[in-house]
Amino acid sequence: MPQLFFEEIAEKMELSVHRKETSSRFSAQWAAASGDFDPIHYDQAYALAQKLPGAIINGRLKMALFSRMLTDFMGPAGRLKRLAARHQGMDLVGQPLTLKARITRKYTAPGENLVDCEIWMEDGQRKQTAIGSATFSLPSQKK
Amino acid sequence: MAEERLITESMRAQVGRQINSKVVRIDQRMVDQYLEATGDPNPVWRDKAAAIQAGYGDVPVPPGLLTTMQMEGDSPSLHMPEQAHLGGAVDGGGEWEFIHPVYVGDVISVSRKLSEIKERQGKLGGMILNSFEVTYLNQRSVLVTKSRWTTVRYSTEK
């Protein structure tokens, strides 16, 4: 996994788009991995009875996918410092998720090289279903 | 201020109080299940040599794992019986600060406090927005992570 350095970052830079296919199996796998077995995330009939449009992707799974996108981008020596997102739409199980990010600021703090970015997720109709921001630190090429 | 019809005095009395707590020992099985579900290939989460080369003291836990509900115990709905009649709950989102790394084998004490309660009208009808503040302390009482997040409760009656 390549390492990204602070000097390689530029404001307005866009991260590689992450796309994730979803399914009931994927939702059930996440339930087992996360300990959240709320049936609204994998049981269509139950979700409809809960007044939802169908089984929906778990919000914490969306956070985990954002986290993975960012740590993939940073490389091993990067550190995710902050992750925030508001779920403004529901993602139906079976629909693809597209994760995107754009650098908004790079700056230094005592002992750290920090990067802020905006993050968002789109559903199969390219509607934003989650929007937020993150901060991470990167190593410098200067010794 | 809009008239609040869903929020009762007993609900409001919970604001500022701890809703629940949990002690979680991070084990390799938790991490492996998480990595498999997210498809995360990063060697830092698996290999001690890669982790140390990346500047960690040991194999760290991926930060996304700390956002999972198992860290907080379970849904806050189960700890707020005064809202049980509403039936429905969805995640509104939140913010996590990863202050220090968490390692496999760490014992994390998690405390969840209700910080705010609001009422809104939305697609699901009348809704209660419960906001929480959650702290994660390791076995040395170091604050390693903190979060603020919101769950939306709504009536499932049609």
Outline the low-pLDDT stretches of chain B. Answer: none
Largest sheet of chain B: 5 strands, antiparallel
What is the share of helical residues of chain A?
Answer: 10-25%
Fraction in helix of chain B:
10-25%
How much strand of chain A?
25-35%
Please state how the strands of the largest beta sheet of chain B are arranged side by side: 1-3-4-5-2
Summing up helix and strand content along with how strands pair, one would put the structural category of chain A as: alpha+beta
Strand-pairing-aware structural class of chain B: mainly beta
- Proportion of β residues of chain B? 35-45%
Characteristic key phrases:
heterodimer, A: 143 residues, alpha+beta, Thiol Ester Dehydrase, Chain A, 5-stranded antiparallel beta sheet, B: 158 residues, mainly beta, 5 strands, elongated
Task: List strands and helices in order, with pairings.
The complex is a heterodimer of chains A (143) and B (158).
Chain A: E1 18-20, H1 24-34, H2 44-49, H3 59-74, E2 79-87, E3 97-109, E4 112-122, E5 128-137
Antiparallel strand pairs in A: 1-3, 2-5, 3-4, 4-5
Chain B: H1 9-12, E1 18-25, H2 28-38, H3 48-53, E2 87-98, E3 107-122, E4 125-137, E5 143-155
Antiparallel strand pairs in B: 1-3, 2-5, 3-4, 4-5
